[in-house]
Amino acid sequence: DQQVKQNSPSLSVQEGRISILNCDYTNSMFDYFLWYKKYPAEGPTFLISISSIKDKNEDGRFTVFLNKSAKHLSLHIVPSQPGDSAVYFCAASAMSSARQLTFGSGTQLTVLP
Amino acid sequence: GAVVSQHPSWVICKSGTSVKIECRSLDFQATTMFWYRQFPKQSLMLMATSNEGSKATYEQGVEKDKFLINHASLTLSTLTVTSAHPEDSSFYICSASTGTAAYEQYFGPGTRLTVT
Predict the structure, then answer these.
(1) pLDDT tens profile A44-67
(2) A50 sits in which H/E element
(3) Strands of B1-116, DSSP E
(4) Rounded to the nearest 5 degrees, what angle is found at the Cα of A94, between the Cα atoms of A89 and A97?
(5) Which helix (H) or strand (E) is A14 found in, with range?
(6) How far is B53 from chain A (nearest CA, A)?
(7) Taking CB atoms and an 8 Å cutoff, what residues of chain B touch A46?
(8) Is the pLDDT reported for residue A24 higher than 70?
(9) A84: alpha, beta or left, given left = phi > 0 and alpha = psi -120 to 50?
(10) Residue A16 — φ and ψ, nearest 5°?
(11) If you ran DSSP here, which 8-state letter would residue B59 be given?
(12) What's the pLDDT band for B66 if we cut at 50, 70, 90?
């Protein structure tokens, strides 16, 4: 049973436009959410996170939105750049095990020049 | 800072043999390291949590005797796949934690294991 789901395996966006990556979760115990970026042959790198007490967190071109009632979060990248092309993983953790992460299956983002 | 390395990056072994994968935190000490497994097009699945100087905690469904984890020092954890079979072929990724927060986890580049 997948507790964190990324239903879009891939997304293509034109350079300069907005990229929106979505993630849904089922476990109501999750209260901290993270986005990771992964290039081929490299490990995931932390991008941005959000606590359940917030509904938005922004860091430069990256903004994460959390809708607790819908158990949904999204990552917005604007403007998108070709260097953003990578696999993006959504992950979640619960207070009871703050460092144990449950990952989604990832979304391959391709930003077209 | 916070660099994690894995060795080897890619290994092919014959069915029935054992393979050891190393995970090292290069510029920090990690009391906790995690081992994940990833199948193609799927998520990273946590296999076990490794604490320095103590036995690893395995996730449900992960065979302890098959996937031996040793966290001998604050900078090194090893995963040994014993008596490997083709179904063990996968991408294994480790991470090392610098603190108690979920985001304070840094990932290695992964090891591609192919069992023939």
Answers:
(1) 999 999 999 999 999 999 999 999
(2) strand A45-51
(3) 4-7, 10-13, 19-25, 32-38, 44-51, 57-58, 67-73, 76-81, 90-97, 105-107, 111-115
(4) 105
(5) strand A10-14
(6) 18
(7) 103, 105-106
(8) yes
(9) alpha
(10) 90, -20
(11) P
(12) very high
Name the residue in chain B with its Cα closest to that of A2. B43
The CA-based angle B110-A99-B84, given to 5 degrees, is 35
Which of A2, A98, A102 shows the shortest C-beta gap to B100? A98
**B70 in Cβ contact with B76 (< 8 Å):** no
Does A81 have pLDDT greater than 80?
Answer: yes
Question: Tokens 């990690």 — which residue?
Answer: B30
**Residues with Cβ within 8 Å of residue B87, at least 6 apart in sequence:** B115
Q: Which residue has the tokens 């966290």?
A: B71
SS3 of residue B82 by DSSP: coil
Among the partner residues B49, B103, B110, nearest to A46 by beta-carbon distance: B103
Report the residue count for chain A: 113
Instruction: Please tell me the predicted confidence (pLDDT) of residue B1.
Output: 66
**Residues of chain B contacting A45 with CB distance shorter than 8 Å:** 107
Question: For A83-92, what is each residue's pLDDT tens digit?
Answer: 999 999 999 9
B102: nearest Cα among A41, A87, A100: A100
